[in-house]
């Protein structure tokens, strides 16, 4: 009974901000700033969503939403491709310097992300990717966490499957595509959700590399709504609700795989 009480309390803690944002987005500006505040609007209105979706040339919210969706999806797919290939090599292949290479990769996890801001900015500038969605998709695609996470999962897969496939004439590329990846759906789904959320919620990096309003993503774009609408709390909360929808849908579709992936990863090293 105590366990369920704790779980219910945690659920309330995590759900309450979402319900507050939803309720505030349905309030009028007068009710949103009322003291004491109301938990749910007395007369729900959708004016905030109308204002949000109308947008202007300086605040094209729907364009920001589409940019975020493109950048997060592209980044997620690139992370899955790069991390799975690197993790397979580190988990299943034997080559000189493998342990040293893995140690260096894991060591980068200890370096604060802000250290890479200026070097990455200079590289993006040299490549001509500034003020484009490419600057949000490519950097970080070869992150150490994805490689480490998938390697730990791949190590838990029976090696007898690889040996049987090799005896049947398959090479490592066939084993990777037809044996390892199909058995790794939980880990891949987990990494997909984590990488999508990381890119979707990123604020600092887009501020550094995006300059035109039409290329903004939701996090930096919504931050200027305060200036655009003079701290219109319902509009800001409507933007927060809009930003949370794709993440909630993605997690709802993959939660079974995510739970299984987390429970099975990191058990062997």
TrEMBL record:
Cross-referenced InterPro entries: MetI-like, MetI-like_sf
GO biological process, one term: transmembrane transport
Top-level division of the source organism's lineage: Bacteria
Transmembrane stretches, start-end: 64-88, 100-123, 129-150, 231-254
One Pfam family cited in the UniProt record for this chain: BPD_transp_1
Entry membrane topology: Multi-pass membrane protein
Keywords of this entry: Cell membrane, Membrane, Transmembrane, Transmembrane helix, Transport
Main localization, broad class: membrane
Gene Ontology CC entries for this record: plasma membrane
Subcellular location: Cell membrane
Family: Belongs to the binding-protein-dependent transport system permease family.
Full protein name: ABC transporter permease subunit
């Amino acid at each position: 009974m105590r366990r369920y009480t704790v779980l219910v309390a945690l659920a309330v803690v995590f759900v309450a901000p979402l319900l507050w944002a939803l309720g505030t987005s349905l309030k009028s500006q007068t009710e949103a700033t009322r003291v004491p505040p109301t938990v749910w609007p007395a007369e729900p209105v959708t004016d905030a969503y109308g204002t949000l979706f109308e947008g202007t040339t300086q605040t094209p919210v729907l364009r920001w939403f589409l940019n975020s969706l493109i950048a997060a999806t592209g980044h997620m797919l690139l992370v899955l491709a790069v991390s799975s290939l690197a993790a397979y090599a580190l988990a299943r292949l034997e080559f000189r310097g493998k342990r040293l290479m893995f140690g260096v990769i894991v060591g980068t996890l200890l370096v604060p992300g802000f250290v890479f801001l200026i070097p990455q900015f200079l590289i993006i500038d040299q490549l001509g990717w500034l003020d484009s969605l490419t600057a949000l998709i490519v950097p970080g695609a070869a992150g150490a966490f994805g490689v480490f996470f998938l390697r730990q999962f791949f190590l838990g897969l029976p090696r007898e499957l690889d040996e049987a496939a090799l005896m049947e004439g398959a090479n490592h590329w066939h084993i990777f595509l037809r044996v390892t990846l199909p058995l790794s759906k939980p880990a891949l789904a987990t990494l997909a959700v984590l990488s999508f959320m990381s890119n979707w919620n990123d604020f600092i990096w887009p501020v550094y590399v995006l300059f035109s309003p039409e290329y903004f993503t939701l996090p930096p774009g919504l931050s200027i709504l305060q200036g655009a609408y003079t701290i219109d709390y319902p509009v800001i909360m409507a933007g927060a609700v809009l930003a949370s929808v794709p993440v909630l849908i993605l997690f709802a579709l993959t939660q079974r795989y995510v739970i299984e992936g987390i429970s099975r990863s990191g058990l062997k090293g």
